[in-house]
Design goal:
single chain; 9 helices; oxidoreductase; alpha/beta; Rossmann fold; two-stranded antiparallel ribbon; elongated; SDR_fam; binds nicotinamide-adenine-dinucleotide; 238 residues; 47% helix
Length: 238
């Protein structure tokens, strides 16, 4: 809680701790939030992800299924729980906006992303399924933002994160989106200027998801094939 507490103090914002897998905790979050804000909530960000399988270094072909349930519960089902609690309490204002953060590994395979890929697929699906109901009944929109790899606690748990970030950066015409860029994009989705955007998975990745191969990535890759001479003068390939 250290950093979050410091931020809350700086912003003079109340902090309400909750385990996102606990419906009771989420009920408290929404009740206390509407009390603290003096009315309904305009926007919510779900920024939660964790895989105990990744933490325990279990590979995707050797998953522990109890841990897989925890990954899915923490990283995806918590989003459904949050939405369901909010809707039952009618805690979100008409036209409100809800965003969850996701990653492109939900749709395409990335080495080392492990069971988080399955969690992100489920998360994006929940955004669509709940987005239909919440939009139809309460005018509340739900979207996911698919962010570039970013060096954070969750990010650094991914195998070869620094190389993945470098690869993504070289592949993206605009380069990787930073955490601050991500915050800016969230703000646009919370604003009234995007009031007709819902049930979307929106890529915020400098163009990465539409690329096949870039010149910068190709140049880097080609370097590994450069020929050089070993100590005996024999030509070898790197
Ligand atoms: N870092 C990246 O490269 C990257 C890329 C795309 C998407 N994302 C997503 O962004 C979101 C935020 O991750 P991050 O990169 O800031 O890492 P992070 O580790 O800093 O954030 C994850 C957060 O989840 C919280 N959390 C874990 N279990 C919880 C639980 N049971 N109840 C409540 N909170 C819980 C942690 O306290 C932490 O604040 C995640 O959904 C992540 O998958 C990250």
């Amino acid at each position: 809680m250290g950093e979050v507490r410091a931020l809350a103090e700086r912003l003079q914002a109340p902090m309400i701790p909750a385990d996102a897998t606990s419906v009771a905790d989420l009920e408290t979050v929404f009740t206390e939030s509407t009390q603290a804000l003096g009315g309904k909530i305009d926007f919510v960000l779900h920024s939660i992800g964790m895989s105990p399988n990744v933490r325990k270094k279990r590979t995707y072909d050797d998953l522990d299924y109890d841990l897989l349930s925890k990954t899915l519960d923490i990283s995806a089902v918590s989003f459904h729980k949050m939405l369901q609690v909010a809707k039952k309490q009618d805690a979100i204002a008409e036209g409100g906006s809800i965003v969850a953060l996701t990653y492109v590994a939900s749709q395409r395979t990335f080495f080392g992303y492990n069971d988080m890929a399955d969690a992100k697929s489920l998360l994006e699906s929940i955004a669509r399924s709940f987005g239909y109901i919440y939009g139809r009944e309460k005018g509340v929109r739900i979207n996911t933002i698919s962010q570039s790899p970013t060096l954070t606690t969750a990010g650094s748990g991914i195998k070869g994160m620094d190389h993945l970030m470098d690869f993504a950066d070289k592949m993206s015409p605009l380069g990787n989106a930073t955490a601050d860029d991500c915050a800016d994009y969230c703000v646009t989705l919370f604003s009234d200027l995007t009031r007709k955007v819902t049930m979307q998975n929106l890529f915020h990745d400098g163009g990465f998801s539409s690329m096949g191969m870039s010149l910068r990535a190709m140049n880097q890759y080609s370097k590994s094939f450069e020929e050089f001479k070993d100590e005996s003068g024999k030509i070898v390939y790197g």
